[in-house]
Amino acid sequence: MRNILGIDFGTTNSLIGYLDKDTPKLIPNSRDSLLTPSVVGMSETGDLLVGEAAKNQSIAFPDRTVASIKRMLGEDKTITLGKEQFTPQEIAGAIIKRLKLDAEEHLGEIVEEAVITVPAYFSDAQRQAVKDAGEIAGFVVERILNEPTAAALAYGINSESKDTIMVYDFGGGTFDVSIIRAREGAFRVLATNGDVKLGGDDMDWAIAEWLKKNFKKSEKVDLEGKEIDEIQRRVIQQRLKDAAETAKKDLTEHLETTINLPFIYTESEEPKHLKATLSRTQLEEIIEPFIEKTKSPLEKSMKDAKLKYEDLDSILLVGGTTRIPKVKQFVEDLVGKTLEHKVDPEQSVALGAAIQAGVKRGKLQEMVIVDVAPHSLGIEVKDGKFSVIIPRNTAIPCSKKKPYVTTQDMQTEAQITVYQGEKEVASANPKLGDFVFSGIDSQEAGKALVDVLFDYDINGIVKVTAKDRATKKVKSVSFKTSQKRLTAEEVREAQLEIGVRTSQKENEIGETSEANALIYEAEAFIRDRKKFIEKPTKDSLRTAIANLQRAIDHDEDKVKSEIEHLQIILSDAEITVMSAEDEQKNEEKEQKDE
Ligand SMILES: Nc1ncnc2c1ncn2[C@@H]1O[C@H](COP(=O)(O)OP(=O)(O)OP(=O)(O)O)[C@@H](O)[C@H]1O
Ligand SMILES: [Mg+2]
Fold this sequence. Notes:
The chain is built from 14 helices and 27 strands. Mean pLDDT is 86; it is low at 480-484. By secondary structure, it is α+β, with helices and mostly antiparallel strands. Helix 2 (88-107) packs across helix 11. The chain starts with a strand and ends with a helix. Strands 1, 2, 3, 4, 10 and 11 form a 6-stranded mixed beta sheet that branches. Strands 17-12-13-14-18-21 form a 6-stranded mixed beta sheet. It has a 4-stranded antiparallel beta sheet with strand order 20-19-23-24, with no helix packed on it. Bound molecules: adenosine-5'-triphosphate and magnesium ion (MG).
């Protein structure tokens, strides 16, 4: 039987899995990791790099690398990598394609179908964009599944209990909370809420800000000052962000950590190093506002589900950010229970997607999953009011109809404008699209009757139909979502483009590109630090660079080990030079003092 894959397409990391008999399994990528960074880059030779290879070049070539694309899905944005431009769906498509290739390699077969997860709070346009991305990657997207539902599947697969579950999913880019009821293998989402622009990424940037402020205080250098050019600024930002994330993760285990960024900036030939110590308490102060921001969506979801905290049987902590002790404690204090991660918080969504994919294949007894519409849907009526046709948290799929009357005499046409949101004034909500319905029975105002029907499908995508009761005329429109939906032709074109460029041999290309980035970095180091590097260090650096270059040109198998070798030599050299400079500074200071 052919497999269907389950995909967790995350802001920071993406995972892919399948159901092996009755057990969900995650598939390691070609670097033997279950997590593939959701980063895409363009190599010097114009190949698309995905994952670790792209992440590794992001410091040297930030203008050719893009991360956190999930946040841009559903928006009309253009991503420039080097000289080329891409849509967010194409970038996401390249990531999914990479996962597909790795899975096919692992399973030894071509897999054409997939279940892909999205935050429950994603809008229609965002869901559509994910579906487009899956198709660009060459999949038939069997289903778009809500991430919390997937997590509940991963936790609940063996449970026969009757459970009311809260899923608190705090990831890299999004926060989601959902209340789910599980009964004998049937899952029903009672309510969902969240913030699509809140995650561990924001914490990293806040820590980076803190580092910059600290640096400005101690070194009197503004890392955002005008004298720093755009490319340099992006390199600095990226280094700060990476260091911030490492420090944050470190503080999950330890009470204090040190941050070292040698040569963060050179001011009139004088290099500056960033050194800082961050304690867990300081970190908690910095990230407190982001943790607090999860409270209101959480309370709203409980209110919508008409539940109190004591009604909850289980609380699932999902997403890497819930590893932070303060985050865990925050939820524990709210619900008044001690909590633990029963399934790895970064893997549960993908495991659930794999289970759902297996259900599609009929491997497991069908589990009924009932999702809900995350936002109300309706149309604009008289005086700009919003008339809701499908209320928020209605179980989907669903079809709902409402009759409307004309507002003018002899009116034969009506503009139908569709919005999604909770505000009473229609235009205050995000607009999904509009169309003109002609062929209304010509009558006095208030006499002609038009039914407007909304079909909300299992993937959260809406079709709107208007029908005049007298003339029986019908117009059914797949109206434009807030972002241009791709045509079949456009998907096919992007498929070809992304398919060819995200090639099976990308690993080698990835390695070469990483090697080139490293050579670039090492040469820049020798050039900028001329005065401070001693001859033996310079020589060993030059030799390591030459060896790596030789491996790139003539001996592919050695590229990896030569990269590692040059990395060691380079970081040793950085430390030596840094101490030499510090020493010199101290001497100068002493001389001055004398
Ligand atoms: N040990 C840790 N301590 C603190 N934070 C961590 C730890 N491990 C991972 N994280 C953070 O978790 C986040 C990634 O979590 P996860 O992989 O669940 O996100 P995602 O699925 O990519 O994003 P999203 O679900 O928002 O789309 C990152 O911000 C990362 O820094
Ligand atoms: Mg996630």
